[in-house]
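Q: Structure tokens for this one, please.
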Amino acid sequence: MASEEELFASVDALLNEEPRLPPPAERARLREAAGITQARLAAALKTTTQSVKNWENGRSEPKSPRLDAYQRLLNGWAAKYPAPGAAPTASVAAMAPAASTEPAASRVETADAPQAPAVPAAALARPAIRPAATSRRPATKKAAQPAGDPRFPHGPLAVLDGDGCAYGVDGIVLDCPATTVVELVEWTLRESGLGAPKLNRYGKDSDPLIVLTAAAAAKLGLPKRLEGHEQRRSLRLPEDHPVVKQVVKAKWRLTQRGFGPWARIYRKAQGRDRQGVQLAILSWDALDERSWPGVSEMEQADIARVLGIYAQRVITPRGSTAVSGLELMTALRPPTRAVQDPQTGNWVPGHNPGSLGTEPMDPAPPEATAEHPVVVNSGWTGGFLNEEAYQWVRPVDRLTDEECTLPFVVGLDLNTAFLAAAARLVVGLSAPDHFVGPKFNPKIPGSWLVDLSHVEVDPRLPSPFTPDDTRPTEPAWYQTHTVAYAQELGFNVAPLEAYLRRETGAYLDPWHDRLKTAYVDTLADLGVTRDLSDTEFLSAMERHKDTDPAMAAVLAAIKATVKGGIGKLRERPQGKKYKEGERWPALQRPTWRPDIRAAVIAKARVNMHRKLRNMATMTGLYPLAVLSDCVVYPSPGDSPLDFLPYAASGKPQPGAFRLGPAPGLAKLEGVQTMLWAVDLMEKGYNPARHIKGGDAVLDEGE
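A: Here is the predicted structure, written as tokens:
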């Protein structure tokens, strides 16, 4: 049942709804029937002839008080000059089309399916829409979309060019008259119909995103490039720049990030309505080539398509994919919810169970970084967690003669391995408590000081306890999953100390579920589906990037969102002004949680080692190298089908590596000859890195 607050909000929306005008073609007919020229009408309404032309061809709409005067005039003309074959009517409102139950998104004109000239009711109070230029992308079948939010009929974002055309999703194009950044912000919030609804009932709507081309940026008074010695993502407009002054003078605000490639301009929210616009400036490298391959060079309509699909399946971008990954966590697990004050009966913000809350939380000393105030101010010297992804190469002297005679090495890459590790992952939600001599409990997330130097591991496999195969020589700090794996291997673990959290939960579950669905659906759009055989899967993966470059870019962005979001849980200080021991801005976020990052990586590394052991048992094969989520094997052939274990029925053996599109399953990443790989290892190179191109860093800084 709807709450009283929701019902009153709906009623207020009806009361505040602007009067509806007839379709543009009917406006022109009524004026011509009255024998009035566009110039004379413009003079009467104290506007320009071009504005009247725009109203009559559907490119823009008048605003109050001009809207009310224009409607009154049209009402009078409609009574005098009814449409041929129609009964006279006393009000133009009667000519407005009946409210349609059809989704707003399906009633606007698109590049692929132009519709009749009649303008739908939902669009009458919005800027004019015209078909976008035909994209070069291949035609694809579109699944039926759910009804969109009527507050945001034009989707979550638009790409603005230098001619005032704002390209939105589904091929729509809006006319944007703004010539300054302030005008752009006000147009976006008041007229554009852009935005996206919240992802959680306790969350907030997403700010509309406006992507600026180089020409649009120049038109708004912004420099074509940001120049400086810092990394491009760290550059900002100086506070005395004319555009920044305009924004401040108009009483808008910038976030602490300032006016950079991703600039957010906002005012304090008024009631339930947010007052913010996110800008992304293409010529300032807002869309990193690593995360958005080829997107910045696409046509505006295709950029809108790529970002629109990402916004629909993941979240409206708020910055780099790393920032978006972190924002998605908060959007799906909002820190607060409405609770009723028992004394006053009023509804007030309260803690949302399962979230990280609103206040930042200091980590335990071994979970922090060396420059963290918790470490610097306490003089901590007890060591740190070293839960990182694998960077391991088997030394050449550990290769057998039989392995050296195999003609190929094949690289297997696990699809979004860190996303798979986040599934059903229990993490700490409260502050850490210190314990001395605790009994190990694999169900409690935390950091344990344990001596694992006595554990013997197969020298042909990487160590399950360190990322680079360095054998522990003394007690060290490990995350719960690493210690639990030592216990699984049959070794006794006796923690000396521990930092544990009493309140726990599967915080990343909705984040995992949304990104997994986005990843699998996007692969399916590229022809890689779950029902393919392993041979068909390898063939589809070989050509999937060429099927549709736009969808391939969405897939790359989703993968970057996973790695970047996990990496940003432990964002380190940036910039020349930072001094050791100071708190840097990232520490003010509740999502600065290095312990959660460590838990994801530890689980992913343990999962990898478990599969490596099972592969050795089933096939007798041992890896040559492992880099993060990529493992390289010697092989008798140039396909993983030549060495992966299959049952007599033809089904993959459980527990080993399997091919498939789902997170955690493997795909072919590269093939080289064995002699090439051995030569690289003799020179100290990593064959996994050379095959995979080094795509393994969990980015902490974007």
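A few notes: The longest strand covers residues 262-270. The CA atoms of residues 317 and 324 lie 6 Å apart.
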